[in-house]
Write a structure and sequence with these properties.
Elements (H helix, E strand, L loop, with lengths): L2 E5 L3 H12 L3 E5 L3 H10 L1 E2 L3 E5 L5 E3 L10 E4 L6 H8 L8 E4 L12 H8 L5 E5 L4 H4 L5 E6 L3 H11 L4 E6 L2 H24 L3 H21 L10 H12 L4 H10 L4 H8 L4 H16 L4 H11 L4 H9 L24
Helix pairs in contact: 3-4, 7-8, 7-9, 7-10, 7-12, 8-9, 10-11, 12-13, 13-14
Length: 345
């Protein structure tokens, strides 16, 4: 049995806490919001974010960080925008051998840093492991077979997380390509918004398949430019997470996209979903990072213009379809040289 502390009582943090308790660990679930803590204690469930999933009384639901000093593993399950703040709260309060795991997916909005970079700057003593892959809270909480990846430059820390969190319903793989794992997890939310917009426009399966496939190429292209390995994007944090986020009824990014494609304003759609839509913020970060690095990302660029410049979604689709003709194997992520554009007939 290990002592685990989950920081963030959203759907994902609650689901992992319930799962870890089910497999015999001593679990603390922390929220910054005393009202949320009281509601979970009284209702014995996270009624708003994870309804119908019992939270056992043995799980210590709290807004105190006192248990940090005893934890073997501290799991950050907050929105990406809160990671630096949470890291500041917990720095120096953990044992040096405690592993910090981060399940947030995104880039920091102001610095465009990856979340592992944010954590490594903030938590100098503790090893950092990133958790990613197709793992919707609604399914993790009820024990549906799930696979994910834990990535770190510290192989011992990654294996420790694998050993502690793996069970008969959660199979974890280790990876040392931290940047690739993070970018796959962050940028698939952007493509899920695009797929949702296509759904909202009623464009059909062909369009969605095109956006997912070419979207993966763009994600991997940016990843390689940031030092990631090409093969990472064919794994769980790449194509795996992309598939589930673009197709699932649980995907808040897809839901927001459907609303935008149906005529809602981007801000109105995000408000209507009423939960964190990471893709809205990751789109801006990915667009700015691609421009900084000189990486071509046409789908990301068009989604950025829809979200932040008021571009009509149908016009964005039309412009993607009218781009100059290309060879499919142009992608840097495949390790081949860029081929010249095919001339117009």
């Amino acid at each position: 049995m290990a002592r685990l502390m989950f920081l963030g009582a959203g759907g994902f943090g609650t689901a992992l806490a319930v799962m870890a308790h089910r497999y015999g660990h001593q679990v603390t679930l922390w929220s910054y919001d005393p009202q949320q803590v009281e509601e979970i204690r009284q209702n014995k469930e996270n009624a708003y974010l994870l309804p119908g999933v019992p939270v056992p009384e043995e799980i210590d639901v709290t807004n105190s960080l006192d248990a940090l000093g005893e934890a073997d593993l501290v799991f950050i399950a907050t929105p990406s925008s809160a990671v630096r703040e949470v890291a500041a709260k917990i720095r120096g309060k953990m044992r040096p051998d405690a592993v910090v795991v981060c399940g947030a997916k995104g880039l920091e909005r102001d610095t465009l840093e990856s979340l592992s970079q944010v954590l490594e700057e903030s938590l100098l003593e503790n090893p950092v492991v990133m958790f990613s892959g197709p793992s919707h809270a609604e399914e993790v909480s009820r024990g549906a077979p799930t696979t994910a990846v834990v990535a770190s430059t510290d192989p011992e820390a990654a294996r420790k997380v694998q050993d502690i969190l793996s069970n008969s319903s959660l199979r974890l793989y280790v990876n040392d390509d931290v940047m690739g794992v993070e970018l796959g997890g962050a940028l698939k939310n952007v493509i899920a918004l695009a797929v949702g917009i296509a759904d909202g426009l009623g464009l059909g399966d062909n369009t969605k398949a095109a956006l997912m496939t070419r979207g993966l190429t763009e994600i991997a292209r940016l990843g390689v430019a940031c030092g990631a390995r090409p093969e990472t994007f064919s794994g769980l944090s790449g194509v795996g997470d992309l598939i589930v986020t673009c197709t699932s009824v649980h995907s808040r990014n897809r839901r927001a996209g459907i609303l935008i494609g149906s005529g809602w304003s981007p801000q109105g759609a995000v408000g209507e979903v009423d939960m964190t839509v990471e893709g809205y913020f990751s789109t801006k970060a990915a667009y700015e990072l691609s421009r900084r690095l000189g990486v071509e990302m046409p789908i990301v660029t068009e989604i950025y213009k829809v979200l932040y410049e008021g571009k009509d979604p149908q016009q964005a689709i039309d412009e993607l379809m009218s781009r100059p003709r290309r060879h499919e194997s142009e992608g840097q992520w495949l390790g081949v040289e860029k081929r010249p554009e095919t001339k117009e007939n």
